Input
Amino acid sequence: MGVEIVRRLAELRGIVADWRGQGFRVGVVPTMGALHEGHLSLVRAALVKTDRVIVTLFVNPKQFNSAADLAAYPRTENDDAAKLAPLGAHVLYVPDGDQMYPPGFATTVSVEGVSEGLCGARRPGHFDGVSTVVTKLLLQTGGDFAFFGEKDFQQLHVVRRLVTDLDIPIEIVGCPTIREADGVAMSSRNVHLSAAERAIAPALAKALFEASDRIAKGASVPDEIETARSRILAAGYETVEYLELRGEDDLKPMPVLDRPGRLLAAAVLGSTRLIDNVPVSVGRR
Ligand code: AMP
Output
């Protein structure tokens, strides 16, 4: 049996009300489609923890910084539905544009603090777009649990913050980053890489993992960040937009490793911007 595709909010609410009547717990997996194993891992986690799973697919114009990036974003709805069916996801919610942003739409959800710096500094308005659409999707689906990837680590923090601050009755579950065999974090944007760029791509994750390992063993944080940055550029990336150590739990800058941390980076390869992050553990000296 295929996954049921729903495009209207009223229909979605009817389905969820029916599930609630039967006592089912509802899981939500928000995505922008072009599904890969990273997304599917979230769906599997949702199927383990809940009784009914809604995957949402909405390429959210408000979170793109350029019209060209939005236009180039891969759209593969039929393939996405075909990937979800064998897993047993119950509904693929693909809201029509007017279900998200009807004429007159004028509200923005804006999270201070964790939205600032890192991707927030490089992509003005991006996290406002993410926060607004995620708030709407969580309220529209009315789920009990929502599943987000650590791949977008800052986004995960932003979503946790807005759910707490707005008293949205849903639990956010963070899921580990799924990688290709050579370490590259899976991303819908990887399809934009040429064969030559794809061969260079692993240098980002490799540099992060090596720096994480050395920092955990007591090496200097600024020295390791500088080494990692040089290695990424030497491999053939055009620029490293940021490469920083932040607190795992609060995303605050961490000049020295005094608690669990995350090394986060964004780098541009050809015309594709890639992000990645790895945990840094304490107490391994
Ligand atoms: P996107 O479609 O890129 O907006 O991503 C939808 C969800 O999938 C977000 O929660 C992402 O963090 C998550 N995600 C994307 N790539 C990965 C990955 N490689 N591993 C785990 N989760 C991922």
Q: What stands out?
A: The chain has a mean pLDDT of 97. The first strand starts at residue 4 and ends at 6.
